[in-house]
Amino acid sequence: MRAELWGRLAAADPGLLRFTAGLRTVTSIALTLAVLAALRADVSHLVAGAITAMVATFAIREKGRAQQAVTLALGLPVALASMSLGALLNARVVMGDLFFVALIFCAVYGRRFGDRGTALGLIGFQIYFASLFVHATVAALPGLYLTITVAFGCAALARFVLVRQTPAGILARLRRAFRVRLAQLVSAQAELLDAGPDELDRAVEEVRVRTARLHETALLIQGRLTDGTSDETVARLVQRRIADAEIAAERLGLLLLTARSTGRADTLTLHLPGAPLPSAVGEPVRDEALERLRLDLEALRLLVLRPGGPGKGTALARLRNRLLGYREGENLPAASPAVQDVFRGIGEAGRAVLGLRIALDGPQDESDDTPATSRSREELDAEDAAIEGAEEGERQAGEATGLRRPTTRAAVQVAVGSSLAIVGGEFLSAQRWYWAVLTCWIVFINTSSTGEILVKGYRRLLGTVLGVVAGIGLAGLVGHHTWTAFGLVLLFIFAMFYSAPLSYTLMSFFVTAMLGLLYTLLNTYSLDVLVLRVAETALGAVCGVIAAAVVLPVHTDRRTDELLVTTLDRLADVTRAAADQLGGAPPVDLVEKARDLDQALADLAAAVQPLTHPITPLRSRRDTARYVVALLETCAYHARSLAATAELLPTHPAIAADPRLRGAGRRIVHNIEAIAAHVGQDGSDARIETGPSIVSMLEPGTLRAPRYGRVTDRVLRHLQRLDESVAGLARPLQVPVRQPVPAP
After folding, report:
1. What is the DSSP pairing of strand 688-689 with strand 737-738?
2. What is the mean pLDDT of residues 283-298?
């Protein structure tokens, strides 16, 4: 029972990243409060210490422990200087406001210097804010210096001793989360097999959600591989096996959906909510083949979850051997071709799980291997050797970098927005105007367009209103019970960090409820104060939106178009390289290209959220954005599958290069580039081309590759689906189509 609960937590929070962030922050604050209480500090110092400990913990985002220690050490003098300036300028309104604006500009501009610049800017801003919150004075500075030093010391103790988190440990937990989410996806696929007509939509939606969650975990692992492994070869091997398992699992879902219908399932179904299901999906068939299929899906789930490889004589070893036998057509039941394809898909998934287990857990017991299992191991060993050989022959030029955010523009926008917030906030309240500035600052964090800022401001305002209601009730219950209030503050801080990646509205709710308790502790609580909090929040959000819309604006359309072009360029790179390699070209690093595509697509999906938000009034535009992203996710799946197959070419006995595959990919790449040119250049006359179906190469006798078999069949089908999906992008993006010229 305990292992099951831990597994569910690992799946809900991959790598326990949110849990660890919340626990570390709460531990840091609790230690700070304990030390300050032992020193008999008053409530204002307790509040300042809690805020400082929280900032000193969450501001540091670097992955290496040595880099974290340096940033934390540099953060202490920054915090002391910021508190000093806050106390000195607290009574000088104009000078204090001008300095606050300059500090905000520098804090945002500091992001261009990476994680350390971002952390130091955040510490400087938040500690200055804390000085305003506790009404720091020059006379109180010695005590506040001690409070800040204690808070930083407790933050270091929590980070490096009590709640340690190493890159290798994070990666190990992420890999466990990947296994659990893969098992959950297999369970959802089994439910899809048994779903009736009334349950089918829900079952498909569950498969869609769990497929997306598996992909999310794969991206998290890819981002942690370099730091979490000491050997670059091992990192690339794990990355390859993670990609194989993800592709095999998604393909299995498509095969299951196809087996339930009279037509072939479209990959778009697994990426677009509300996409039409295949035709003639009726009641699940209850025959011997499908009963066996259900048992094999359960066997696959057990193979995924088992922490160690099946040992000699175990039932799981026999199940594994049976599943791997399906890859070679062994013991396939008498059933329709679509159902037999599902059994082969289970075999491919079993092979991916075997490769994943070898990469993560090391060598396995081979005493019970059947010939089919031995051949799968030989293929995996040959692929591993090819990866090691590629590592020896090439030097990595460094890590891939994402798009650089224009920090100068953001700094100017935040400075202008904060100036407006200061002026407006002073009219609302001469004592608590800084809440408007804080909101303006926050809505600019991790946003790049006016639409993103608008949505974030709306969510923060909604969460603040709900938090005010909760704060009113909590203040009445807690009263002046100091330690009860601080206990609730710690609970809300944990909930804030745990919910932050899931819901910005929920995070804002916990922040506001926590602040209501802090107001109570400082004896400044009243209904008027909490209502003022809502008004200042609304003012700050409006000022942020005005600044983003007027000062060097980055419109949502422009931002999404830039990211769309980047995604299309990455898609063209993967498709071109995979098709060339399948056609006989020298091998290249396809896994890294696929990773760049995934990251570009993730950036695009985040940027279009303002267009797909429920409050968006333009519903047709919202539907178009969702459709385009879903089509791109479909394209990315087929491109990843092509890349994974192309990397097998040097070692897999069932795959041979065929020059015509290179030609088949050329038209797809041309169409992708034409769409990118149309989106990125106003007035471009680029057109996509249509022609004979790529799948026509599957006609008997037309492909004379000496090893033509099911793998080559799959390559052509991925090319066909990719061709159709790319052509499908032309309509919503309004790209003209050039009709093929008939042959003379």
Report:
1. parallel
2. 78
Instruction: Please calculate the CA angle 661-272-577 and round it to the nearest 5 degrees.
Output: 25
Give one DSSP letter per residue of 193-262, joined into a string.
Answer: HH--TTTHHHHHHHHHHHHHHHHHHHHHHHHHHHHH-S-HHHHHHHHHHHHHHHHHHHHHHHHHHHHTSS
Q: Report the C-alpha gap between 379 and 390 in whole angstroms.
A: 17
Q: Which residues contact 161 (CB under 8 A, 6 or more apart)?
A: none
Tokens of 80: 């002391």
For the chain, give the percent of residues with pLDDT over 70.
81
Alpha carbon 22 to its chain centroid, in Å, reads 19
**420 φψ region: left (φ > 0), alpha (ψ -120 to 50), beta (else):** alpha
Helix (H) or strand (E) holding 737: strand 737-738
Q: DSSP of 92-139, one letter per residue? A: -HHHHHHHHHHHHHHHHHGGGGHHHHHHHHHHHHHHHHHHHHTT--ST
560, two tokens: 């999404």
The helix/strand/coil state of 688 is strand
Strand partners, 688: 737
Task: Give the distance between the most distant pair of CA atoms in the chain.
Answer: 95
Q: Which residues neighbour 226 within 8 Å (Cβ) at sequence distance 6 or greater?
A: 232, 235, 399
Cα separation, 566 vs 326, in Å, equals: 40
- Which segment, 94-98, 563-567, 647-651, 685-689, is predicted with the most confidence on average? 563-567
Tokens 């399948």 — which residue? 582
Residue with tokens 């990426």: 271
Q: Residue 256 — pLDDT band, cuts 50, 70, 90?
A: confident
Q: Do residues 189 and 58 lie in contact, with contact meaning Cβ atoms separated by under 8 Å?
A: no
Separation of alpha carbons 633 and 597, rounded Å: 10
